[in-house]
Write a structure and sequence with these properties.
It is a single chain. By secondary structure, the chain is α+β, with helices and mostly antiparallel strands. Helices cover 28% and strands 17% of the residues. It has a single domain, classed as Glutaredoxin. A four-stranded mixed beta sheet has the order 4-3-5-6, covered by helices on one side. A two-stranded antiparallel ribbon has the order 1-2. The longest helix has 11 residues.
Length: 173
């Protein structure tokens, strides 16, 4: 209860104007610097280890490998939906790297909705920042595609396979 009240009265961190200004903690303790992705498309996906969509990790890895010269996938574990990502960084890493052989960058666990929403998700979901439109993260494995110029161009539902025709078309386009 006190954490919720504190969150209500704590000013939100500033949201950068460009996706390339974000530097986020990685799952392994390093930093993911989005400026390193200039000139490539970026797919940002909120993930969870205990979700019905968790097998999408394998499809995201396949997409990442297939388009490794033009696309970077970045996973953001979150525990916002039915507590489907309750684990520690080590537990999340085991699911990603051992079970699904994920090689794309994985951020540290964040909140993707509510008063503690991570700044990058405020950027993704608010037209004031992303210049595409407002959106709501509906569930785990919602996908946000950013073009080579750093503009949000598509939002794909959690149920959309990373290998679906419309996703592949957007990545290739």
């Amino acid at each position: 209860m006190f954490a919720f009240l504190k969150a209500l009265f704590t000013p939100a961190p500033a949201v950068p104007s460009s996706i390339y200004d974000f530097r986020v903690p990685a799952l392994n303790g390093d930093i993911i610097d989005f400026s390193a992705f200039r000139g490539k498309k970026i797919m940002i996906v909120n993930t969870a280890s205990l979700c019905g969509h968790t097998p999408q990790y394998a499809e995201l890895e396949e997409l990442s490998q297939r388009f490794k010269d033009k696309l970077v996938v970045v996973g953001f574990p979150c525990n916002n939906f039915l507590f489907q990502e309750p684990g520690t960084a080590k537990m999340i890493s085991d699911v990603c790297h051992v079970k699904y052989r994920v090689t794309f960058p994985m951020a540290a666990k964040v909140s993707v909705k509510g008063p503690l929403t991570a700044p990058i998700y405020r950027w993704l979901t608010n037209s004031r920042y992303n210049k595409l439109g407002d959106s709501v993260v509906k569930w785990n494995f919602q996908k946000y595609l950013i073009n080579e110029e750093g503009r949000l161009i598509c939002v794909f539902t959690p149920a959309a396979s990373p290998l679906a025709r419309e996703v592949i078309s957007a990545v290739e386009g």
